[in-house]
């Protein structure tokens, strides 16, 4: 299996509860390496652009409100099978359905405040990394 890169976010509900280190440790313990990281307080325009795929969904307004309610830590993670591995350690979107030991089961508050984001496929990973990072900010 080739080394892959994926895009991850530690969402405002988690940064507000001072969980950046705890969540990053769970990612690192799963074998993922943080090769880029920065803290951003995203604007509504940035949140709407990032989540444009969901713009017609009923939860879109609430999603943008939540994502702009505090700082987010955006990261690039690298490792074997990184995209799938990150999705596994994140757990299901709704924390009530997430498996024991996952980030969302351990830390998420609700489906809207579910602590982390992770790309779901190679195409979205490349697109999401490019949305937040320039090449020189990624140090493998
Ligand atoms: N979301 C929500 N309500 C829903 C579905 C999704 O608030 O009914 C939010 C939630 O924060 C989720 C994000 O929208 O993480 C993106 O949804 P997606 O289905 O892509 O889930 P994910 O890939 O984050 O597990």
Automatic annotation (TrEMBL):
Positions that bind ATP: 11, 59, 87, 93, 104, 114
Keyword Nucleus: no
Alphabetical list of Pfam families matching this protein: NDK
Active site: 117
Transmembrane segments: none
Cofactor(s) listed: Mg(2+)
Molecular function terms from GO: ATP binding; metal ion binding; nucleoside diphosphate kinase activity
Alphabetized PANTHER family for the sequence: NUCLEOSIDE DIPHOSPHATE KINASE, NUCLEOSIDE DIPHOSPHATE KINASE DDB_G0292928-RELATED
Protein name per its UniProtKB record: Nucleoside diphosphate kinase
């Amino acid at each position: 299996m080739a080394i892959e890169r994926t895009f991850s976010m530690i969402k405002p509900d988690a940064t507000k509860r001072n969980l950046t280190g705890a969540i990053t440790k769970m990612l690192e313990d799963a074998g993922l390496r943080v090769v880029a990281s920065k803290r951003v307080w995203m604007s509504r325009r940035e949140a709407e652009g990032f989540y444009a795929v969901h713009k017609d969904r009923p939860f879109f307004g609430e999603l943008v409100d939540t994502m702009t309610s505090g700082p987010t830590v955006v990261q690039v993670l690298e490792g074997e099978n990184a995209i799938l591995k990150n999705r596994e350690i994140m757990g299901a979107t709704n924390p009530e359905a997430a498996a024991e030991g996952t980030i969302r089961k351990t830390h998420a508050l609700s489906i809207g405040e579910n602590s982390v984001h992770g790309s779901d496929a190679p195409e979205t990973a490349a697109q999401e990394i490019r949305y937040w990072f320039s090449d020189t900010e990624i140090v493998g």
